[in-house]
Amino acid sequence: MCGIxxxxxxxxxxxxxxxxxxxxxxxxxRGPDSRGVWRxxxxxxxxxxxxxxxxxxxxxxRQPMSYAEGRxxxxxxxxxxxxxxxxxxxxxKGHRFQSDTDTEVILAAYVEWxxxxxxxxxxxxxxxxWDEKEQTLFISRDQxxxxxxxxxxxxxxxxxxxxLKAFLQIPSLDTSFNEDLVAETLTNxxxxxxxxxTLLKQVKRLPGGHxxxxxxxxxxxxxxxxxxxxHLVEVPKKFDDQVAEFRELFFDSCRLRLRSNRPIVTNxxxxxxxxxxxxxxxxxxxxxxxxxAQQRAYVARFPGTNQDEFEYAKAVVDYHxxxxxxxxxxxxxxIGQVDELIWRYEDIFWVLPVGxxxxxxxxxxxxxxxxxxxxxxxxxxxxxxxxxxxxxxQRSLFLRFNEQKFNALKKVVERMAGGNDAIRTxxxxxxxxxxxxxPLGRNYVVPFLSRFTPATPYYxxxxxxxxxxxxxxxxxxxxxxxxxxxxxxxxxxxxxxxPTIAQTYDRSATxxxxxxxxxxxxxxxxxxxxxxxxxxxxxxxxxxxxxxEAMKGLMPEQVRLRTSKIGFSSPMEQWLQGPLRPWLxxxxxxxxxxxxxIWDGPKLRTYVQDSVQKGQWSNLPKIWxxxxxxxxxxxxxxxxxxx
Length: 643
Hints:
Glutamine Phosphoribosylpyrophosphate, subunit 1, domain 1, Rossmann fold, six-stranded antiparallel β-sheet, 25 helices
């Protein structure tokens, strides 16, 4: 894993050495182990790399790395987990290697197969390869965009980086904000990350599953190389056979992600997904004859809040006799660092991800550089999100008149209510909900009514967004070959929810020199999951049905058959009511917040003050995105290098 930057002076002078060094070292937190800069001064092309070593810890893994006597140069962030298999295939074709890195395997794969090498790689990656002979820059981002890649392309310059903040180090680059897009993002936070847009006017994002090719004198050519719907597989008709295949893929995904020359731990929330990853890791270690106590699981606790899942995590720990590290997540420990967290996350989210931040920080402090396996992606591809099941209930009852399926889904979703708010399933509520989701309701009625009540962010905006530039749930009809339930989760997985969540995990981990690996995000497993019929994922009274069956005998039954759903989030209501309240009141009363051209600052301040005075604490979390947007924009403007 690394922080990468690049700069190509197309028509103007190249960057001075000190500016290129500053550009590179802005990513030092992503790669504390080594740094490297490669410059082709004739072309004005430069690569900068800050490396976090995980495979081949020697200097042979330093980047930027060359291949074929300097013809090819790579700048790479990520991990290719099947690099040993690809390496052997390339050796059989005559390639020779100087290191044991996955980096060199990518280079040789590109030499052998060109852009088609992307299909050979199983991992999380964003890389740029320069071919000196062909004068071609080729850039690729993994199937689901787990590793970030941002770029600026003008007639004068092409620049790229792993994070937006890196561009602040180059005075000539435009890093001003797109205020209309900020406003739209406040109304649709999950809609930004899956697009090619960012909140900065001139900076774009290379979406997951896309590549970019450039030659001198030509604009960037972007192509989508991966679309999961084109890689669906034929699954067995019998559910038991589906379970066996799913289990085999899941085990292999975990096995590949245990390849590391650094310590490996797991994040264990107590939910089914993280418990499954932890349990498979324990099973694989047992098969290898390794002592259970040497496996460590980090468990976040939220004492006194509805986010605490300690009892379930402890059950998994006791079942496998592994070593737990219990961490009480208390916002008091970062109360003086909220600005720094917002700076690191450099985006707008529903919550402040303190839990992720602290648990990954503690891993680094206790273990040094570590790799952690995480359960991310399981909910999102196995149709276990309650709001999508409610959508299917609406379709079943009001459009298909299938009362039997409606009742079956109702049983599943009602059992999911747990630490989170209760889930409503009454007919009148679902009917109203469906009406709001129609194009008329979503595009006109809800925004219009929201101008008169603080029910949604529209109420606080000075001007409504001029255009729909982001991804919205109603666009899911663009995947017509899938069932309604699969289609909704497909859209969430590729364009809205998962890209947003993945960004928070990337920033949380790389801020502390930790690498997060998510076995559920293996492209083979994702393709298999979206090929399954609905009742293999939501059926027999359970969500994530196939995973529960695949894990039978591998974890405690109280966890495997647990139906309540909490999710690893932050108890913002309690925090804003308590330790974050003074900070919140100061923020909404600042002159810059009050005079924002995007939102109505006085209206927001009055809303917060009235809510505090009346003790209506549940009102406060909804305005958090405005506060985060304010600080995000302020920090970027204040820290821009001007000379």
